[in-house]
Amino acid sequence: MISSKYVSSSLISVWLLIAASSAGAQTASPANESPAALGAQLAGLQSSLLQTQAKLARELRKIQQLQAQIQHLTAQRQPPAPRGSRPVGPHSQAAAAPAHAQVRRQSAHISRSDWLILRQEVKDLEQDKAESNLLHPLVISGIVLFNGFADYGNVDSIDVPTQVLPGPASNRLGAGLRQSIVSLSGFGPRFLGARTRAHIAMDFFGGLPAGYGATGSGLLRLRLARLRLSWTDTAITAGLDTPFFSPNAPTSYMSLAEPAFATAGNLWQWTPGVRIARQFKAGDAGWKIQAGILDPTEFGSSFTSYRSPTSGENSGQPAYAVRFSFQPDRKRSHPGALGISGVYEPRQFSNGTSLPAWALGTDWLWKLASRLQISGQSFWGRGLTAFDGLPQLNAPIQSYSAAVYARADAALAGLPMFGGWLQLRYRPSERQQFNLAAGYGGYESGRLRAFSLFNPVLSSLSARNQLLLFNYVYQPWSDIVISPEIRIMRDYPRKGAPGWGGQSGVALGFLF
């Protein structure tokens, strides 16, 4: 059992740190400092003291919870004394001693798994916590993810296949850890009455270096970087983020570098932008309005630090988006939500043509039963290729520059587009879940066929792309994930028979 000495030592250590930081601050302050500077230092010390007290309170609560768990396990293993077993007579004390010793031995015995859990939790409390140099809380999280997979068909990527390419089919076997993610979350002081928070996430899917082991090691890539100010019912978020008009994503540990259905109905592309959200309460129900401006970065790649402008940036205006959502019961542990959104992107092409892109969409997340949930989204519009969810150009490497140019061509911007995805999740327990999902994205085939007559590069663009996946997610511990998955892809080219492909594999992850 955790003794009071550990609690006392923890209290003494924390107060010594507070006293040392206060003494250091007083020593470093010159005598001739202005009252404003001294006041700022005093406010900083007061904020640090409050944060330290909050941390101490959390640690004490954890220690009390551990003590309660140990007492509960001990009480469960103490056998009840049978009636009439109390010894009577002159030899009662001698007769009772072995019985008490037996009870002590039985109460001290717990299973090895319970003991390992408690010992690990105590070690977690004793270890040093990560802090920023400004004494604000800093949380390190992420996942070390191993993917072992087997591909079949002529797919576009061996790690994360998204669609089938024309050509002979082949079978491939591989593994990788490039989809591992490292995240940092910082919690700052209040600003204008709002709580401040920053978050940054990186993975290793930014490319492959040259040399031995290059196929197994990836280059660091920025995924998300956002700042957030949140009040009671209002929040402002700025940075590189997922599109707020597409809040849901299919569940897949085999596809984290690019979310599942990236080319089959999932609008996901991480884009710089600023948005504001406002919540309204009506009893147990809730409404939310989100509006923002975005910088839609088109498909492309640059091997230098120079970034050429996209057709949207050439227009001199950002993209505009808005989303209305409704939650019928906010008090539930997993409240459902229905959303309606719209996106409008002005575009100016190199030939002087102005042709805006737009899309209307819906999204949903709903609990059908106690263990069954449905989620997904759908969209319909024209030329909004900046957020993906549609088939990609299947141009060969030697025509890559032409493919990038065609991606931003006015002909492609005039194509009607549509797509969406649907997922059913069944959770037999808190540690297990089964996910079945299907996605669909494409262009109007008639117009694509007509436009490809004037632009040969568009002939490599598929009219539609379909994807079906099934996975099982098992968490034997809170920080361990095991997830086998099967995905099947079907690609409909502009002409010819559909192409088939897919991937089967297993993901092993360690969450931290």
Q: In words, what does this structure look like?
A:
This protein has a 16-stranded antiparallel barrel with strand order 1-3-4-5-6-7-8-9-10-11-12-13-14-15-16-17. Helix 1 (4-28) packs antiparallel against helix 2 and helix 2 (35-76) runs antiparallel to helix 4. The chain contains eight helices and 17 strands. The protein has 512 residues and is an alpha+beta fold. It is globular and about 75 Å long. Helices cover 24% and strands 35% of the residues.
**Number of helical runs?**
8
Q: Report on the biggest sheet.
A: 16 strands, antiparallel, barrel
Amount of beta strand:
35-45%
**In whole angstroms, how far apart are the ends?**
27 Å
Structural class: alpha+beta
Task: Give the strand order of the largest sheet, numbering strands 1, 2, ... along the chain.
Answer: 1-3-4-5-6-7-8-9-10-11-12-13-14-15-16-17
Q: What percent of residues adopt helix (DSSP H or I)? A: 10-25%
Low-pLDDT ranges? 1-12, 16-33, 79-108, 396-408
Number of β-strand runs: 17
- Reading the helices and strands in chain order gives HHHHEEEEEEEEHEEEEHHEEHEEE
Gross morphology is: globular
How large, in whole angstroms, is the Cα Rg? 29 Å
Indicate the mean pLDDT.
79
